[in-house]
Amino acid sequence: MLWSALVMALVVGVVAGRAATLLRYDLWYDELYSVFTALGDLGQLWQASVADRVHPPLFYIVLWGWLKVVEPTPTLLRLLPLVGFVLALGATWWAAGRIGLTSRGRAVATLAVALNPIAFDAGADLRGYALLAALVAVMIGAMHPLRSDPEPGQPQRHLALLIAAAIGATWTHYFAWPTVVAVAVVLVLNHRRRDAALLLGITALAFAPWLAALLGAEGEQTAAQIGWGNTLGLHDALLLPGTLLAGRTPLIAMAIAAVIGWTLLVTALKRTPSRELALLVAAPPAAVVVASLTLGLAIWEPRYLIGAVPPLALLLAMWSDSISPLPRIAAVALLGLSAWGAV
Fold first, then answer.
1. Does residue 192 surpass a pLDDT of 70?
2. I want to staple 138 with a disulfide (CB 3.0 to 4.6 A). Which of 49, 165, 233, 335 is the partner?
3. Nearest CA to 324 among 277, 263, 252, 244?
């Protein structure tokens, strides 16, 4: 319990550090566009988000509601992603308990998300990525009871929560879809085909109005809007776990994180619960690779991979719960590299 309390104290310290640095950078173009979009009424918001094409409109709607309560000052605007960051930490702590981690494991998982450079950056980014991380963590927590025979009356509740989180995630960012599909695959592998079909069907049906709006726009322009990032290279693929865990640290740090990260993912394939989390980790970057190779979209941006952060943090926590000292040492090393990346 003492170690858990110490780790959670570190989490509080990280949140305080994120709060103290919210105004380190001025609002940039995309964030200003978000504010512009959210200042109108809901009809104007829908039209502006369709014109933007880069994000489905849920975060714009959340920001619209936020601006009904607070003044659009830089501090109060940045406070919204910080709230999303805290929600992501809380959802990860909850999901870690749902999958059976010890109190220490839950604390480590929460700290791993708090220190993750992608999530830490999202805690100040006025574009909804922190909200996406929170919803992915809720999906994981809601998915786990469906994998086994739940108590009477629980399946509908957990499935409803899973579908609601999936709808929210897909309306927040396109790159929630790989995670939704991966969750459906996990359900199928656990003989929950009906639940998987309901998850995909209802989520797709809820997404249909936005898809219809996109199809009504010019397809080439939509692709140009979405694929404005960097082109995926071989070194990016090799260093992928380093990017997820250590961010834009010097190459040697990313390489060390990548080696330990690949070891973590390979080790996870040996057991069913961790194997399923590894699938959720792999889904977002795999979607980037497929889209880059088949559609030629330049979409290699670390923040697009934030859906992989909560399951990766849970895998890291499983490692820290190991009896063997080596995985624990590796987990501590990865947390240190993540802290470096966040700084």
1. yes
2. 165
3. 263
